[in-house]
């Protein structure tokens, strides 16, 4: 066990930080907001944490906390500015936000280390710490998916007008989704950066959006469990796909395409459907009989 | 507050006052100066050919559709400028002309949504309450199923349940029995009368004239966004303008 752990510690940590990143993109989608601002938050959190350690000589956890909060506030403010946009326009605006962050990082001089990035933010972070951070985030998200709150969030996404008619504060929920996404993205960025002790502008880029989206599409967009499934698949897949060598990218694309076409709700959606079908077998049989009797 | 309302109604204060409401979409005057009053303790019906503005009027009443002019007063409170979400909290619930349910949630969850935003007092004993409501509209047997597994008539019952679970004082229904067979319609009609006895005033848009005459005790008739008649069902159905607009004489292609 501990052998396996020490051999795979990097993969385990990457799975956890990828999960956080995926969650920061998943949250707005779950609230019906087409925002990728979580990746910009990842950059803000990473740079803020690194600057606090390198320039401010802060210790690890205060630096992580600062990165998380600054990212949360910035993303929330972005949400106030773009909240009237819908669909693709919202997506574009939030990707622009991410680009602006990386441009600022490139032009930040000594503060951000310019194009070379910032080095020497040596955080004291163990796997246990990351597990704890993930547990807190997941516990909070599970709470938002459960019962009354979960129903309201689903309604805001599926039918905003109906949500309004049912007394749900749709715009309030949308603004909240920016805040949550920013906090989680910032946390992911700060932890990832201080774990590697470095961050460069090129890391805060569109490829993170793609990574997060593929994890969500394949795993499932409706719940944190889906993001976990997706993060596990995409972090561990390369170790199993090593035999296909240079075909790895093709295999990736194939998996994503198949998932998008055949599993509209991801792996989690399939599991949920099966569970639902087995649980309601009796009811469905009765309804079928009832329909036959009527006709 | 609730006692006040009862007292006010006794003194003859209307439950809902609609004053000169208009909704124009560009040049289309979907609703064009409607003034009416609903008093507590009645089932009101609205008749009118397709496109006469009935659904748009419900949209304006619930503040979902922006209006061009006019005002709404519910239990003495002017809510003309309040956001749509506050309408549900005030005690007005509605259904829509098309089925609008969450397809990946159970019937039970869909119904619970009708009380999820109410203050704590309105949500107490939610489990017992949802069981009771499901029993009344006849969906108990399919409580765990998803709406897209049900017939259209069953889906409408679920919507009905979602609208009444929060015990609104005014219920707005947009063609609640569309797609139902005649025995289902009778069931829903009976349920409406029961709800009235429990103090839920209703405002119903329906094309089924016979059902409206049997169920409602006051009717409005609309055409081209205006009220063309109101009064007892018998009188409204016989009204020449209504006969002309809704029941025939070249209007047969409607309804
Ligand atoms: N969002 C909108 N934009 C433009 N025109 C609209 C809109 N909604 C409704 N209308 C128009 O307003 C008029 C009234 O429509 P409404 O749906 O209120 O009629 P209705 O009486 O409910 O008809 P039906 O019996 O078919 O449901 C119609 O001419 C319709 O085309
Ligand atoms: Mg209509």
Automatic annotation (TrEMBL), chain A:
GO terms for cellular component: plasma membrane. InterPro entries: ABC_transp_permease (IPR001851), LivM-like (IPR043428). It is a multi-pass membrane protein. The keyword Transmembrane helix applies. It comes from the Bacteria. Its main location: membrane. The chain crosses the membrane at residues 34-54, 61-82, 88-106, 118-143, 176-196, 208-238, 250-271. CDD domains: TM_PBP1_LivM_like. It is found in: Cell membrane. Keywords: Cell membrane, Membrane, Transmembrane, Transmembrane helix. Pfam families: BPD_transp_2. One of its GO terms (molecular function) is branched-chain amino acid transmembrane transporter activity. This is ABC-type branched-subunit amino acid transport system permease subunit. It comes from Nocardioides soli.
Automatic annotation (TrEMBL), chain B:
This is ABC-type branched-subunit amino acid transport system ATPase component. GO terms for cellular component: plasma membrane. It comes from Nocardioides soli. Residues 16-249 form the ABC transporter domain. CDD domains: ABC_Mj1267_LivG_branched. Keywords: ATP-binding, Nucleotide-binding, Transport. InterPro entries: AAA+_ATPase, ABC_AA/LPS_Transport, ABC_transporter-like_ATP-bd, ABC_transporter-like_CS, BCA_ABC_TP_C, P-loop_NTPase. GO terms for molecular function: ATP binding; ATP hydrolysis activity.
């Amino acid at each position: 066990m501990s052998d396996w752990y020490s051999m795979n510690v990097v993969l385990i940590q990457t799975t956890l930080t990828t999960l956080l990143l995926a969650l920061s993109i998943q949250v707005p989608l779950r609230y019906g907001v087409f925002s990728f601002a979580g990746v910009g938050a990842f950059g803000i959190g990473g740079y803020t944490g690194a600057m606090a350690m390198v320039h401010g000589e802060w210790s690890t956890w205060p630096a992580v906390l600062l990165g998380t909060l600054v990212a949360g506030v910035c993303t929330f403010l972005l949400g106030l500015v773009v909240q009237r946009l819908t669909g693709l326009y919202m997506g574009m605006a939030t990707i622009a936000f991410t680009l602006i962050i990386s441009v600022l990082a490139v032009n930040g001089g000594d503060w951000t280390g310019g194009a070379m990035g910032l080095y020497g933010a040596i955080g004291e972070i163990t796997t246990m710490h990351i597990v704890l951070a993930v547990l807190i985030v997941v516990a909070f998200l599970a709470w938002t998916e459960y019962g009354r709150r979960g129903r309201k969030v689903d309604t805001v996404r599926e039918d905003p007008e109906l949500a309004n008619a049912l007394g749900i504060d749709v715009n309030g929920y949308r603004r909240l989704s920016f805040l949550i996404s920013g906090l989680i993205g910032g946390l992911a960025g700060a932890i990832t950066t201080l774990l590697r002790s470095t961050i460069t502008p090129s890391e805060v880029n569109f490829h993170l959006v793609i990574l997060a989206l593929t994890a969500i599409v394949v795993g499932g967009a409706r719940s944190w469990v889906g993001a976990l499934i997706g993060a596990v698949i995409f972090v561990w897949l390369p170790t199993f796909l090593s035999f296909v060598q240079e075909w790895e990218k093709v295999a990736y694309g194939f998996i994503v395409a198949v998932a998008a076409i055949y599993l509209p709700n991801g792996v989690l959606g399939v599991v949920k459907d099966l569970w639902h079908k087995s649980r309601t077998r009796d009811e469905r049989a009765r309804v079928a009989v009832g329909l036959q009797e009527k006709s | 507050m609730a006692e006040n309302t009862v007292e006010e109604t006794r003194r003859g204060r209307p439950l809902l006052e609609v004053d000169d409401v208009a909704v124009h979409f560009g040049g289309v005057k979907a609703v064009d100066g409607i003034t009416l009053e609903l008093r507590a303790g009645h089932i009101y019906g609205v008749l009118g050919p397709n496109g006469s503005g009935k659904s748009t009027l419900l949209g304006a009443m619930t503040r979902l559709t922006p209006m061009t002019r006019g005002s709404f007063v519910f239990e003495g409170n002017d809510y003309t400028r309040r956001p749509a979400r506050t309408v549900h909290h005030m005690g007005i619930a509605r259904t829509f002309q098309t089925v609008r349910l969450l397809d990946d949630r159970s019937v039970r969850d869909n119904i619970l949504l009708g009380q999820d935003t109410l203050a704590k007092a309105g949500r107490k004993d939610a489990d017992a309450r949802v069981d009771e409501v499901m029993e009344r509209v006849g969906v108990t047997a399919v409580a765990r199923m998803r709406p897209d597994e049900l017939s259209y008539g069953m889906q409408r019952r679920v919507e009905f349940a979602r609208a009444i679970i929060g015990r609104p004082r005014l219920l707005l229904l947009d063609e609640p029995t569309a797609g139902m067979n005649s025995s289902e319609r009778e069931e829903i009609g009976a349920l409406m009368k029961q709800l009235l006895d429990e103090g839920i005033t209703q405002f119903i848009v329906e094309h089924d004239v016979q059902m409206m005459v049997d169920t409602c005790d006051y009717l409005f008739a609309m055409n081209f966004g205006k009220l063309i008649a109101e009064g007892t069902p018998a009188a409204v159905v016989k009204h020449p303008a209504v006969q002309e607009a809704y029941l025939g004489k070249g209007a047969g292609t409607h309804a």
